[in-house]
Amino acid sequence: MGHCFSHDSIKTNEEQGLPKADAEKLKGVKIIFVVGGPGSGKGTQCEKIVEKYGFTHLSSGDLLREEVRSGSERGKTLSEIMEKGELVPLDTVLDMLKEAILAKAETSKGFLIDGYPREVAQGEAFEKKIGSPTLLLYIDAGSETMVERLLKRGETSGRVDDNEETIKSRLKTYYSATEPVIKFYEGRGIVRRINAEGSVESVFEEVCTHLDALN
Ligand SMILES: Nc1ncnc2c1ncn2[C@@H]1O[C@H](COP(=O)(O)OP(=O)(O)O)[C@@H](O)[C@H]1O
Ligand SMILES: Nc1ncnc2c1ncn2[C@H]1C[C@H](O)[C@@H](COP(=O)(O)OP(=O)(O)O)O1
Ligand SMILES: [Mg+2]
C-alpha cells in the first residue's frame, strides 16, 4: 500500500515518511550516499560528479557551516560541536537535508548526499523519513593520508575543525561512529569502495565506473 519497490527509485512509506505529494516528486530520483573519513576527498569527488553527471550535491557539513555563518544561536551551538570534532544532533542534519532535497526534488536527476550518514542511526532515520539510497560510495583513504590532506586544507580553508587537535578527534569519531555505516549497508549490496589514495583524477575514474553502471 503506497509502497514503491522499483530498483532505482527510492522507497516511500506513507505512515512515517514523506507526504504522498513529496514522495511522488522523488520517484525515480537517485539517492547516493557519499561516505568516507574527514579529508578522504568526498567533496572533491562530488564536485567532479556534478560536472559530469549533473547530480545535485548536498554536503551536510556545508549546510551546517551555512547555518553557522548565518550567526543564529543554533549556529553557535553547532560550531562548538564541530570544533570538538563531534557529531551534531541527528535531527538537525536530517531536517536540513530534507528541506534541501525537497526544494530540488522536481528538477534533480539524483542527489549526492556527502558526509551523511555519519552513524547508523542517521541512515535509519533518513530511510524512514525520506527514502532509501541507490548506492553508497565509500571514499576510502588511510588515516595518514587524511591527516596530511586536512592539514594542507587547513592552511587556507578557514575551517574551525582543520587543526591538528580537532582532526584527531574527527578521526576517532569516524572510526567509531561512521565506519559501522559501511558494514550496515554492505549487506544490501549497495556499497562501492573507492581507493582514494591516488590522484583526484584516478579516484574519479574509479567513481565513474560505478556511476556508469547505475543505468
Ligand atoms: N585524491 C586526492 N589527492 C590529493 N589531494 C586530495 C585528493 N582528494 C582531495 N584532496 C585534497 O584533500 C583535501 C580534502 O578533500 P575534501 O574533498 O575536502 O575531503 P572531504 O570532503 O572528504 O573532507 C582538500 O584540500 C582536497 O583538495
Ligand atoms: N551527518 C552529520 N551528522 C553529524 N554531524 C555532522 C554531519 N555532517 C557534518 N557534521 C559535522 C561534524 C563534522 O566533523 C563537521 C564537518 O563535516 P564535513 O564538512 O562533512 O567534513 P569533511 O568534509 O571534512 O569530512 O560537521
Ligand atoms: Mg567535505
UniProtKB/TrEMBL annotation:
UniProt-listed SUPFAM superfamilies: P-loop containing nucleoside triphosphate hydrolases
PROSITE patterns listed in its UniProt record: ADENYLATE_KINASE
GO cellular-component term (any): outer dense fiber
GO BP terms, alphabetized: ADP biosynthetic process; AMP metabolic process; ATP metabolic process; nucleoside triphosphate biosynthetic process
Domain of life the protein comes from: Eukaryota
Family that this chain belongs to: Belongs to the adenylate kinase family. AK1 subfamily.
Domain statement: Consists of three domains, a large central CORE domain and two small peripheral domains, NMPbind and LID, which undergo movements during catalysis. The LID domain closes over the site of phosphoryl transfer upon ATP binding. Assembling and dissambling the active center during each catalytic cycle provides an effective means to prevent ATP hydrolysis.
Protein name, as recorded: Adenylate kinase isoenzyme 1
Lineage: Eukaryota, Metazoa, Chordata, Craniata, Vertebrata
